[in-house]
Amino acid sequence: MKILIMGLPGSGKTYLAKKLKEIMKCAWYNADNVREMAGDWDFSDEGRSRQSQRMNTFAEFEKSHGRYVICDFVCPTERTRKIFNPDIIIWMDTIEKGRFQDTNKIFEKPKKVNFHITEWKEDTAKNISKELKNV
User: Which burial class, exposed, middle or buried, applies to 49 when counting CB atoms under 10 A from its CB (0-12, 13-18, 19+)?
Assistant: First the structure.
């Protein structure tokens, strides 16, 4: 199962991903780590689409081997989310604006999500992991 944790930079995506990975014992790919491996820090529309495809490739590999996989990245537009094609979307909607103006300008609120997190609570990761195991 491909799980996308998305939201603006600084919204808590990576923090939640780390917590879920610990609980669920699953694969996890962080966008910054993947960009670093690829040596690709292009944040143009083309670069963001390429990053979504790159994240999808890693996630599909894990999924094809029957594993849960968490990918945390901004995934700011409907187009980038369509490219990634997650089974589950967790939207970290915890901040009004991120630290990068270019990302704030293009960010499109998702139309459909499985989990909409508006504030962090200590049991958030535990509650989400229980629900994910039932999906």
Answer: middle
